[in-house]
Design a protein that fits this description.
This protein is of the alpha/beta class. It has four domains: about 210 residues, no CATH class; about 180 residues, Heat Shock Protein 90; about 130 residues, Response regulator (Rossmann fold, 3-Layer(aba) Sandwich), CATH 3.40.50; about 40 residues, no CATH class. It has 17 helices and 15 strands. The strands form four sheets. The chain has a five-stranded mixed β-sheet. Strands 10-9-11-12-13 form a five-stranded parallel β-sheet, sandwiched between helices. β11, α13 and β12 form a beta-alpha-beta unit. α3 runs parallel beside α5 and α4 packs antiparallel against α5.
Length: about 600
């Protein structure tokens, strides 16, 4: 009859219940007599339940009044003759208040529970929606990861064909004993860098296979001790050239069931990493041991070591210790990641720790035997191909200003490039027309710029110790270096970087690879502009000097930058000195100004 959602109707019903109970009890009073509160206790209970706390209290008061008037003797009067009836009224009022407050608390608790339940439902809906979005993002990430893997795989395969077509003809040309020395040297540069690119392509292709789960294991019986010695032998000439003590400790033989090609790559990458970071005069040691059913390969070097906070991330893909534009060592950051993946495919572990005397220790642990059920293949023959790209870098071509063969009056160009092949390429390209000097990092370039005072500077962007950008900033902040023409070389086609370099005073910016003709043309243009500016300045100074000589006034001209002071003839007459007698020293003014 009444809507429970309507607050007013609920209160009205709660207040009507005492009157309804009074009418019913009056009608059947002879049956209920002498129990005056018989119907009123349930009434106030329901009233407080339906109408709430205040409606319950009011209903209790109404019920007490009705009982006193109609049912407590004398009837139809509010007077009470028996004192015990007062106690019954007080108990009734107390119970009514108790019912009202109890129902109010229950109502509030019910509302809080309903609110919490609704909030929980909304939170669950939001969580479901978030999970759905995370699932979609995860699926999208998987798809992008698959596309990236496919791209790496495709581009690696596509690069192998032109690299093969480069390495094949170059190898045939180098096999010709009648090849001129200059041509042989250029072709060796081509071969060395093509092999380096070939190795990086192989790393990308292997990583693509690993990410796609397509890298299969090819187990065979192998003498791991002989394999370690074979791989290490390819580094002996490199160790000798760099005066590095290279120690190899293995048993005579150690039969294992491994994937030989992957073990070669593991050793190759670990040793290449050790030689890359070990300075001249350092030490590298390779140790092979058997431990129960496992074998341990340890590669120790005396390089700078690996910081403790980097030891967990060094095996991640594309991770490098010295990232940034001033890193000392190149690479893709895939070598150690491939080591970890290949070791895990064998069911082994790889870890890095600090060597007691400094440097790093890489420890690879492999099972001696293939897993149960693994297919065994014929042992592979030891080949040369995986190690061709380890051909030691020929650094004998490093040259400085003493190697110039052109006229001593030719403009001097300083080439600052950390890659020896690129440095030699640029110096040989420009060395037929200009005097050329070389530097191999930003700090050396900065020092040689001051000592040689070149007419033009060519610098790479990314170099160890000091980047090209930082070198340019420091040069421009120093007196006399604000007019030096600078050409910056970079492998990054970055408009923001180009704009920043031009703001720092770089005249030209070339992106690698660049054409010979373009570099020569830009060098010639900048040097011609520098000569023209110098000639105009010289003519301007000459005109000023003639004007000073012609004047009848005592004038002098002081170049604050150079400290050179010129005086007119009238000046010497005024001070009473001849030009050959000298003049007051202006060094004090030069230093203070």
């Amino acid at each position: 009859m009444f809507s429970t959602d309507n607050r007013t109707q609920r209160i009205v019903l709660a207040l009507l219940l005492p009157f309804i109970a009074c009418g019913v009890q009056w009608q059947f009073w002879q049956m209920f007599k002498p129990f005056v509160w018989f119907l009123f206790f349930p009434t106030i209970f329901l009233s407080s339940r339906i109408g709430g706390k205040y409606a319950g209290i009011l209903s209790t008061a109404i019920s007490a009044g009705l009982v006193v008037y109609f049912f407590i003797p004398p009837q139809l009067s509010f007077s009470v003759t028996n004192p015990n009836n007062y106690y019954s009224v007080l108990v009734f009022l107390f119970m009514g208040g108790l019912f009202s407050f109890t129902h109010d608390k229950l109502e509030r608790a019910t509302q809080h529970a309903a609110t919490a339940l609704e909030e929980s439902r909304l939170a669950n809906d939001r969580l479901t929606d978030s999970n759905r979005q995370v699932t979609l993002l995860y699926e999208k990430t998987l798809k992008l990861d698959e596309l990236k893997t496919r791209f790496f795989s495709n581009i690696s395969h596509e690069l192998r064909t032109p690299l093969t077509l480069i390495l094949g003809p170059v190898g045939r040309c180098l096999a010709d004993s009648g090849l001129p020395v200059e041509n042989r040297r250029d072709l060796e540069v081509v071969q060395r860098n093509a092999l380096m690119l070939y190795r990086q392509v192989n790393d990308l292709l292997d990583m693509a296979k690993l990410e796609a789960g397509a890298m299969a294991m090819r187990y065979s019986k192998a003498d791991l001790a002989g394999l370690v010695r074979f791989v290490a032998s390819h580094f002996e000439s490199l160790a000798e050239e760099n005066n590095i003590s290279f120690l190899i400790e293995t048993p005579d033989t150690l039969e294992n069931q491994v994937d030989q090609e992957k073990c070669r790559r593991i050793l190759l990458n670990l040793l290449a990493n050790a030689f890359k970071f070990t300075p001249s005069g350092g030490e590298i040691a390779v140790t092979l041991r058997m431990r129960n059913e496992m074998v341990s390969i340890e590669v120790r070097d005396s390089g700078p070591g690996i910081p403790e906070d980097k030891r967990e991330t060094i095996f991640e893909r594309f991770s490098q210790i010295d990232g940034g534009v001033e890193r000392r060592f190149g690479g893709t950051g895939l070598g150690l990641a491939i080591v970890k993946e290949f070791v895990q495919l064998h069911g082994g572990t790889v870890a890095v720790s600090a060597a007691p005397e400094g440097g790093a220790i890489f420890t690879v642990t492999l099972p001696r035997f293939a897993p149960d059920g693994a297919v065994m293949h014929e042992a592979q023959e030891e080949g040369e191909e995986p190690f061709q790209c380890l051909a030691p870098l020929d650094t004998s071509h490093k040259r400085d200003e003493s190697g110039s063969v052109v006229s001593p009056d030719a403009p001097l160009i300083l080439v600052v490039e950390d890659n020896p092949d690129m440095n030699r390429y640029i110096t040989s390209l420009l060395g037929t027309q200009y005097r050329v000097a070389s530097a191999y990092d930003g700090e050396e370039g900065l020092a040689k710029t001051h000592s040689l005072q070149p007419d033009l500077l060519i610098s790479d962007m990314m170099m160890p110790r000091m980047s090209g950008e930082r070198m340019v900033r420091e040069l421009r902040d120093q007196p006399g270096m604000d007019k030096l023409p600078i050409i910056m070389l970079s492998a990054k086609a970055d408009d923001e970087l180009r704009a920043r370099l031009l703001e720092n005073g770089v005249q030209e910016y070339l992106t690698k690879p660049f054409s010979d003709a373009e570099l020569v043309a830009r060098v010639g243009g900048l040097l011609a502009e520098r000569r023209r500016t110098s000639e105009e300045l010289r003519e301007s100074e000459e005109r000023l000097r003639l004007a000073l000589d012609a004047t009848s006034d005592a004038l002098w001209d002081w170049d604050v930058r150079s400290g050179v002071v010129y005086r007119s003839p009238r000046y010497f007459e005024l001070v009473g000195r001849r030009p050959d007698e000298g003049t007051p020293d202006f060094a004090f003014f030069t230093t203070t100004v």
